[in-house]
# Entry
Amino acid sequence: MAAEHTFDFDFNDQGLKGQTFILSGGSGGLGSASSYLLARDGASLIVGYRSNRERAEALREELQSRFGTIVELIGGDIGEATVRERLIQAVKRIGYPLGGLVCFTGDPARVKFDQASETDLQASMGENYIAPILLARAAAEEMQSSSVSGSIVLFSTMQAIVPFESSINYAGPKVALVHAARIMAKQWGGPSGIRVNVIAPGVNRAGMALQSISSGKYDFFVEKAIIPRFGRPEDTARVVRLLVEPDNYLTGQVITVDGGLTLRRDIG
# Structure
């Protein structure tokens, strides 16, 4: 049987050169690792930060000196329309098309549901759902105006994947974010080719969970072998890099980066 086998695969060898990415919250614990990885692969970055200008400046200096990439900083709360507009306008100043948005921003909303006021619930909904989807809409409009088939990556939580006690105040908006992402993936797919996906992190040595890990609150997860180790920022950054890869075939998906914790909640 004479069969001709060829192994001529079309992998992207250009990295992310010539593309711009907005990373809202890109100087934080999880965000900085993704900023590093995208900059290493040649992307120009617009890094949004809420208030810690010093940390954002330190990240920009590191990325520019190490990789020679363009890094522009935009401060402020993405719940404000003017901040979202400044993030989009920064794309036009850089001159490269918007290849994607990665939105890390959110609030842990640690007030338990039985103690949460109406104001607490509204604040969590605003920061964990409304602000991210409004920024996603603005990014999609920019991509569509430039005829770019880009990627939008939103951040949920493992608490939106399985029920965790006392987490309604935080998990509720994050569940809504997951469903909204699927709707956006359907609405902006097809001819536009805009991909929308969600990452749901678990217990990471960064961001919102770092303080709890440091206090020993989650030690039993490792001690009982529920997970092999705590998550690292690099774990999440690798998934971000996969999802923003040009011409990626994934859309409307939720990738849970938790070491299998949500599969073994019965052991906890």
Remarks:
- The beta strands are 20-24, 44-49, 71-75, 98-103, 151-155, 195-201, 254-257.
- Residues 224 and 236 are 23 Å apart (CA to CA).
- The domain at 20-258 is CATH 3.40.50.720 (Rossmann fold).
